[in-house]
Each structure stands twice: as C-alpha cells, then as structure tokens.
C-alpha cells in the first residue's frame, strides 16, 4: 500500500485535534487511565517514527483490515506488522523500553490510531506544526494529572531567557521530565540566532535524563517532533555514579562538563534517598556541622536519608564545567530554613550566585502542589576568588494565570475592564516575568538595580540566607530605622519561657488549654480556652502561662501579618497551658504595656515577616525571635503609650461589666 508521507502539516490545530481524538477514543474505549492512555499513544508514535526511519512503510491499515476490526474480528496481518515494528522500537530505544513491554490497546483503538496517523510523516515533514501540536496536546495531558514532571511553561521560558543559551553550548537537564527546558532552549537558540545548524544543536548539544521511562519517552518524542533529528534523551538515574552518568550520555569522562544546566528536580513528595552507596558518593549525603559563625565542615556521618533535590544540587554543580551556568527550581525552605544553612554554605563555596527569583504561591498549584518555590541562578566558580560581585534578587508577583486547578489565564484589562490585546489581536497576559527579564538585563549591564520587582546587593552582604524578603530594600531600611532609634534585642528586655510545664507529667490533671485561635488579635487578649485532661492534650501543648505574661505567636500562616496572635494573660487564664506555637514573655525590664503595643506594630510584624521560614507552616526560629529588635523611645513616650494601652484594657473590662449587669426577664 503506497502512502503519501509528504502530506504537509499546515495547521497546528488540525493535528492537535487528531491527537486529542486519538487520546479520547482510547480513553473512552479501553478502560485505561489518563496516564496509561498517554503512554500507549506515545508508544504508537515511536512505532511510526521507527517505520519512517527504516522506510519499510509497514505503519498502515487498509480499508479491508479496518472493516474487519470494526466487525469485531482480528486482523492478524495488521497485528503482525505493528508487533514487528514495536520489536524494532524496543531494540532501537532499549533504555526507554523494557524487553517485556507490549502494546496494551484493543484492536479497535489500535486500528483507529493507525488510521488517523498513517497519512503524514512525523520526521520528514519540514513544517513545525507537528511539534507545536504535540506540545499543546501534551500540556493538556500534563495539567490533567501528570503534574509531577511538569514545570509551567512561563517559568521554563523565563529561566531560559535569564541563562541565554548559545548555539555552541552544551545543555543538560538531569531531571528532564517531559523535556520542557530542552525544548525551550532549542527554540530560544533558533529565535535568537541566524543560520543555526539544527541537527548539530539537538544531536550534539542537548541532553536530557530522567529516571522514569515513560516520562523520558515523552521528552524524547517532544524534541524529536520539534527538531526532526535524533535526540540525546536517556532513561538514567542521575544520582548514580557520576562517571556512569557521563558514560551513558556519551560524554567523555575527561570532559570538563556542560556549559548549562537547567532543571526542576523532584521535590516534595519524592521521598528521601536512603541508599548508602548513593549517599556516600555525595558531599551532601553526609551531615555537616557549624564550626563558627559563617563556616561549616563535612563530617564522616552519613545522613540516614537525604531529600533528592539536595543531592541534585550537588550533581548539577558537578555536571557544569568551570564558568558554566545553571538555573534550578527549588522549594523556598532551601533558601531560608536554618537547618539548611549548610546547604547554602556549600553552594557559596562552589559557585558564584547570579540571581535569586521568588515565585508566587500559585505557580505550581495547577500542577498538583502548593509548595512555594524560588529560582536559583549560579555560575560554577571553584576558585572563588572574587567576593565583591553584586547579586540580583527579584520577585515575580504576577504569573499570568490563576492558582486554580486549570491555571486559568489572567489578562490585562483597561480601566473599564476590557481585555487588552496586542497588534495581532491576541489577549495580553497579566504577568511581570517579562519585566523581571528586562530588570536582569539592566542589572547585567549596570551591576546594580532597584525597581518595583528587583534589587541587588553585594556578595559580602549575603549571610546564611538566600530569600528575597530578607534582603529587600524595604526591610533593610526598616532595620536601619529601628537601629537608629535606641534598639535593643528582645531577649535583653524579657525572659523567653521555653521550659515545658511540670503539669504535663500528671496525666490525669485537668487544665485549660490555649491555642493560637483562642486569641482575639485586635483586642490583644485571650478570649477562649478548652478544658482538657493532660492525657488528652495535643503534643504541641507545652508552656504554663501566668497572669501578666505576654504570649505571641512564632508559628502559623498569620505570623508577621495583621492577624498575628499576641495577648496579655489575665487572671482568667492564670495557670493555663498554651501551644508551642506561642512564646511566653515574662520578667519584663521594660513596661509590658509598651511592649504589648510594640508587638502589634509594623516594626515588629515586618521583622517577623522578613525572618519567618517554612513553606507548609511558616515559623520563626528561636534564635531569630530572641534577637528581634525593640525600639526604646524616651520614658515620656513609653509612659504615654503604656497609659493608653492600659486604659484600653480598663475600658474593655468596664464594657464587659456593663453588659453583664443587664438584667431582663420575660414576664
């Protein structure tokens, strides 16, 4: 049967409809999950590619065979042809398929798929519509349940625009997922350079690795359809022996490494790596200890388990050649948590930090996780001679889509609410990624910047934290202002109680228990407690509070905001037990009513906001808490503030008394 394999693909939407129709038919008729349906469809695409490469023209179904299958009969000739092609596919792509793999489609779904795909070429057509159609098709499927390997396209393109890859540079993604960074890098190179040798760029310079075979197949197919040449996407565990990784991607062991690493390593639900052989091959597989204020050393003690993304950071730095550049997506905890200061020290020791960009909360919500993330851009710099360079910090506030399941687009509107459009009549997304890219270009030229989104600091101003809020100009100016106004540390003017109550040893004792939600923030008072036996208390029940104490929150989503819980303990709650989400302040060396006022002020709350860490449950460390700055004004000002705060409590008590004095009974 002679097929017309030169069929021109002129309309992306037409091909996209074909892909969607095939997927929907399989899903509706074969009882497969969305993920299984996609995997089977990818298998058929590989089979077609093999048929075209071998020029055997065995990927077809004629009218008689189709009618036979539609009549619920088998077509042995069709199955023999396709199974033979699949055997060749497994042999050709042995790292992506297992020997025991088989096609799981019903005869009817297989016939329908072949019928829809047989009239055009996947690798010989010069038109790029097939690559674009596959990208659009895949993005639909990724949002529908494969978010575990998907990085939002705007973030991918943003990272690539910051790194600015060149045609002669080697690029690797050691956790490539569906190949987004590789595709975006390829398109960036094409769009920003003339006379690009496409085959050389793809076959010699782009490398993708992923531990999951079905995902690696998608990445390989995506790039293959985009570029029409053989690709270097491999199914490899990037955390195994380094030399083995280089060998499998066909990079000489004597190679100096890659020019660029772009990646979003697995984090969150990926679990910890506990294999001692793998852990022992990484510096970050071992525990580190602090030897002075700014230094850590590696110990000889292995972690019992280390999260994958931390090992990926080290592997990515290893993969870079000297001067090579990297962009990586990481959870915010890696930029700010005190327990990971050793990790940031390690990064500073091996690299030059180019930039840190904070992403909004909604970035990954459409793809299955609400973990807050930031982007780290670095350059490998083992000698670390230059310690005076500037660092770029920025914050993306508008991503262009909503933080809902579908990631619904958000468009710019005029003052009347009408959607704004570009010169091609397309709606304009409401985003500021493009603004930050321009900020970075300006910073790159001028070595300093301060805009609405971005700012810069000197390397020697960088301490053990990498987070945007900590160094923001607004927060730094706030600290400077407080320091100029007779500032003291909190621990110098109060005792911070951190000893668990002895009452907790008596399991049958009945106590009043106070949670964060039991505080009325505007009135600075505890308004509720729960009577419980000690054995019923939650594990967070910790401290005994006394009349005259002040309790203030150090954990929870509201800390550092106007809803931050702070209260003065009155006689009603004397002896109660509070959660360890509070810290108890006692034995004041300053007027407690003034301190109560200060704990509600922007000077205190902004410090909390700046210093808080933790993506799931924000908190401030005890060390940071005790070192919060308290401004001490003149005695006259303290007295005036104290009297007003005290009076407000007296008026509330009087109000309660008036209400309680009302007596009214129905006759």
Automatic annotation (TrEMBL):
Enzyme class: transferase
Domain of life: Bacteria
Enzyme Commission numbers on file: 2.1.1.72
UniProt KW keywords: DNA-binding, Methyltransferase, Restriction system, S-adenosyl-L-methionine, Transferase
Gene3D superfamilies per UniProt: 1.20.1260.30, DNA methylase specificity domains, Vaccinia Virus protein VP39
Reaction catalysed by this enzyme: a 2'-deoxyadenosine in DNA + S-adenosyl-L-methionine = an N(6)-methyl-2'-deoxyadenosine in DNA + S-adenosyl-L-homocysteine + H(+)
Residue ranges annotated for the DNA methylase adenine-specific domain, each copy included: 138-412
Family according to the record: Belongs to the N(4)/N(6)-methyltransferase family.
Protein name: site-specific DNA-methyltransferase (adenine-specific)
Source species: Cellulophaga geojensis KL-A
